[in-house]
Amino acid sequence: MKVDKIEAFDYMLHLFEEWRDNHETIKGKPFPKLTAMKLLFLAAAPKEEGGDDLLDIFDNFYAMPYGPVESDVYNAIQEDKLPSFSVKYRSIEPREGAEPYNAKRYNGKLYHRVRNAVNDLKEKNEKLVLLNAFRWSSWSRAMDFAEFMKQLSAKMSIDSIRDSSKIFDLK
Fold it and tell me: I need a labelling partner for 85 at 20 to 30 A (CA). Which of 18, 40, 99, 156 fits?
C-alpha cells in the first residue's frame, strides 16, 4: 500500500465536504461512508476515453455488493486511520481535535492531481454529491463473476476500470 494513498483520500474528503456544502439540502449533514467510496471511485476513474485518472494511486478496487471499494482506503476508514476524519457508524465526520483544514498543507503534485480529478467530476455533474447510486460496467462484470463464484466480492483490475464504459451518464 502506498503511504500517500490515505493522505490523498483524506484530502479528497475535504474537497467532497466543500462540494457538499454548496448544496443546502445536505450541508452540515454527516457524509455517508458509501457515498464517499462511490465518489472516490468516480474521481479516480478516467473521465473520458484515454483521459487522466488516479488509478496509479487508488489501485486496489474490489467490486462489492453496493459498489466499487478501494480496499486500502476502506481498511484505513475501518481502522480509524484517516488523519482528519473518523467513522461514526455509516458516516465519515471530521475528527475531533484534528488539525483544521489548511489548503496550503496540500500543495504537492499529488494533491493537484486529486483536486483536478474532483473538479473534473464536479464539472461533469454538480449534483453527483447528492446521488446514492450509480453503476459502472467493470463493477457490474466483477460482481457477476463474484456471484457466479458464490463470493461477495471480486478484484477489479485497473485495465477493466480504464476500459470500462459507463452505464450511467454524468450529465
Answer: 156
User: For the chain, what is the domain count?
Assistant: 1
> DSSP letter at 166?
B
Residue 47 lies in a domain: yes
| 84: DSSP letter | S
Q: Is residue 44 part of a domain?
A: yes
Segments forming the whole domain that contains residue 12 = 3-163
Name the burial class of residue 107, with classes exposed (0-12), middle (13-18) and buried (19+) by CB atoms within 10 angstroms of its CB. Answer: exposed
Question: Identity (one letter) of the amino acid at 127?
Answer: K
Q: What is the pLDDT of residue 135?
A: 59
Beta strands 61-64; 67-70: pairing state: antiparallel
DSSP code string of 28-75: TS-EEHHHHHHHHHHHHS-SSTT---STTTS--EEEETTEEEEHHHHH
The answer to the question of residue 138 being in a domain is yes
Return the pLDDT at 3.
Answer: 44
Quickly tell me which residue has 452505464 as its cell. Answer: 167
In a domain, 84, yes or no: yes
- What is the pLDDT, as a whole number, of residue 136? 66
**pLDDT at residue 48, rounded to an integer:** 67
